[in-house]
Amino acid sequence: MPDLAVVPIFVNATAAVLPAIIAGAASAVALLFRPRELISVFRRRPWIPAVLTVFVGLGVHWMIAAKAVAPQPARVQQPTNWAEVGRQIVRARQYAGQGATRPTTTAAVTDLMLGVTPQRTGYDGGPVPLRLSLEPLWSHAEPETFYLSTPIVRDGRVYGASCQLDLVGKYGYVFAADARTGKILWKTSSATKDGTPFNAFFSSPAISKDGKSLVIGQGLHEHADCSLLCLDTETGTVRWQVPTTLHLESSPAIRGDLVVIGAGAIEDANHKPTTDPGFVLAVSLASGKELWRYPIADPESSPAIDEAGVVYIGSGFNGNATIALKSNSDADLKSRGDDRLIWRVPAPYPIVGPVTLAGDLAIVGGGNSDFVNADPRPAGVVMAIDRKTGSVRWRRDMADAVLGSVSFLDGKVFCPIRNGFVVVLDAADGKDVWRAKVGEGSPILAGLAVTANRLYVVNKIGQLHVLNPADGTPAEPPRSVNGKPGDLGFCLSGPTVAEGRLYIGSETGGLRCFVGTK
User: Fold this and answer.
1) CATH T-level assignment (fold) for domain 103-515
2) How many CB atoms lie within 10 A of CB 35?
3) What is the CA radius of gyration of the chain?
4) What is the pTM of this model?
5) Is the dihedral angle over the CA atoms 136, 142, 146, 150 positive or is it negative?
6) N or C: less crowded end of the chain, CB within 10 Å?
7) Band of the pLDDT at 109, cuts 50, 70, 90?
8) Average predicted confidence (pLDDT) for the chain
9) Is 266 in a helix, a strand, or coil?
10) Where are the transmembrane segments (predicted)?
11) Separation of alpha carbons 361 and 271, rounded Å
């Protein structure tokens, strides 16, 4: 397996030569219209101007030669598809009032995180978009841009982050959009005066209880020197950033003034760390001051914080465990002669899935496959751990890895399995309630969204399936969230149901919003 365990390199080199050249050329042209980013790139990589000069010269020579030998076809302007324009206008008017935007119970009383709450249902507790077939309301897409992270919705705004493939790397931005129209309200791509762009985002945003702060990690598995970011939700201004030497693919958790995230290891081809093996980072939401850090092997998992301030997080490659930590300050623990570690529970495989809190249990998933590569002998596990004692209440072995969030609702645990199945377990004893192959069985890499009467599942090729949560039977026809077929199978964003609509990121279709009617 390659060294990029969580978000590996995007494309096989042989298959991607031509698209990469085209994308690179497009990115270079785009940079000409973003002078701050162009200057920043040239400062960091002074060899690029010389290389570009050579390629431009060759390109001009080729075009002149081609023009001399080939007839020039007449340039025909493509007609405007007025029927499609009309459909969009009608759709916007038809659903303008759908799911009236207002603070929901969940959003109004708690910090929001990947999966909305520590139960990771992906659902805010408000209206559910019921319809025989969901209707698209709007999408926000940009060229060569993936939306890998899961969006979060609060007070009529949807917040997300991007991964842009550029000539010289993978960059990204954080943004806010009107939840009903998709209009971009702000977009932030740098925290520095010289315009140095953010690295790409896999981490999903968290929103503070008062709705004023957005916190998100930065970077993909290949990146180093990534920062934890805090932005003002009203303006997109970067309030603070906490630099690290690693990447932050973990999605942060917030409770009060405490922000916690995992900093994952940079690994070689054998999954051995090349630098720092990883740590859990805790900072103050108000100031960005580092409160403490605790060494853990490859904590790519997304943490959860319970009502007592206990932090739960998974340990990935070279760790294979779930860990509970006290959140007290270093000084407080030292004065009492206490240790930060509460318990450490070994697992048979890396635990890279987010931690889900279900009553007195911490439930985690893991496995020996990653988001791109399936182990020749795939295997996975779901474990329910007593939050107080660290004893394993039950364990269920799976046919493949569990990479996305497991969801807890009404005494049941909904598990997305990489082999294309959804398995639902009884939270009390881990026994099967039902299991179902979703569609044709394309791998399920993202978390789920589950309500009392709908279960939303997206697979790696971008098919959105809506199931009955009682038995797994289809509730609606499947539909694609991609704008066009994806080349990489990188639909990693989980669905979010909030304020009566469904939101999801995609590989080629941008960030999308769907609605329905009762």
Assistant:
1) Methylamine Dehydrogenase; Chain H (2.130.10)
2) 10
3) 23
4) 0.83
5) negative
6) C
7) confident
8) 85
9) coil
10) 6-33, 45-64
11) 30
